[in-house]
Design brief:
Layout lengths: L8 H7 L4 H5 L2 H15 L4 E2 L6 H5 L4 E4 L3 E4 L17 H4 L1 H13 L4 E6 L1 H10 L7 H9 L1 H25 L3 E5 L8 H16 L9 E4 L7 H6 L4 E3 L6 H8 L4 E6 L8 H14 L6 E5 L9 H13 L9
Parallel strand pairs: 1-4, 4-5, 5-6, 6-7, 7-8, 8-9
Antiparallel strand pairs: 2-3
Helix pairs in contact: 1-3, 3-6, 6-9, 7-8, 7-9, 8-9, 9-10, 13-14
This protein binds coproporphyrinogen I.
Length: about 325
Amino acid sequence: MRQAGRSLPEYRKIRGSGSILEVASDPERAAQITLQPVERYGVDAAILFSDIMVPVFSINFGIEIQSGVGPVVENPFRSSNDLKRLRALEPEIDVPYVGETIKILSQECPVPVIGFAGAPFTVASYLIEGKPSRSLEKTKALMEEEPEIWDSLMDILSEITISSLKHQIESGASAIQLFDSWAGLIDPKKYEEKVFPYSKKVLSSFDDPLVPKIHFGLGTQPILHLIAEAGADVVGIDSNTPIDVAREKLGNEIAIQGNLNPEICLGPIEEVEKAVSEILMLNSNNFGHIFNLGHGVLPDTDPAVLAHVVEMVHSHELPEKNNA
Ligand code: 1CP
């Protein structure tokens, strides 16, 4: 459950008022925050406390994360000149704190730790737009009007993403998640042509069957087969794609992660119970399912509701695998 910690009083206490990039670069505090949802809810995995913008922040592209807003870029990416502001990531030098945080967690975390990175497209969209956007107009314009610059940008970001994920695995991450949150905001054909090859390049750089790869995006129903084909072991879906519809598109051999609507968790507990049961029912006891929310936990969510969701999922009885 991404951002499961955000609604917790213990998170607000340890987080302080600085930028989350500051907190994420302090291994002791980042490790403690990663552990909070595990301790509070008994979830089966922990997601590293960091952000998708950490690698490009660390090579000094000029990024800050504004509280309540998200990533903001002082001088957004506009032309081929801006390619010079990017370079290869040297994780041991640029983001040593990420490795240190995961090493602490390898000792202290009782469940697997999921490392993650932003997919090249989603990171590119922040660099180009300069701030959170749901129209991605500038990104779409650059993609169309400057195909060579687009390809160079996506190439560099793919390499940065690969280096970042390798470093996390070497430091002890048990699984990796590639967040392409905004992949559903572009036309499916454009996705296939201009985005998919780079996500595939990233995911196909990892082939250890013991380190599963989760690939997530919002609004990906029309491109779900490509999200899988890019090299995912697990496809993360949002709440707008019912699990049975995702199964129809993906078949039974791939795992699916999702997809309780985070907004339902703000409402009456009976509605939450109904929604959880429906997801479990629509999954028809398929073993390849990581129960999760369809997107991050909303900050006003009552921790007791999330605790109840975890309890419901844990008490759901699956048939014996051999007899299934
Ligand atoms: O669960 C966790 O808290 C783990 C750490 C984590 C992760 C996995 C954070 C901390 N960010 C992320 C990933 C991330 N960051 C994604 C991909 C997942 C998703 O779709 O939610 C994205 C798109 C971002 C970019 C980002 N960073 C946003 C979204 C902005 C937008 O376009 O709407 C925001 C609000 C941030 C800030 C941020 N990152 C993390 C936290 C806890 C926060 C909020 C901090 C604050 O407001 O001070």
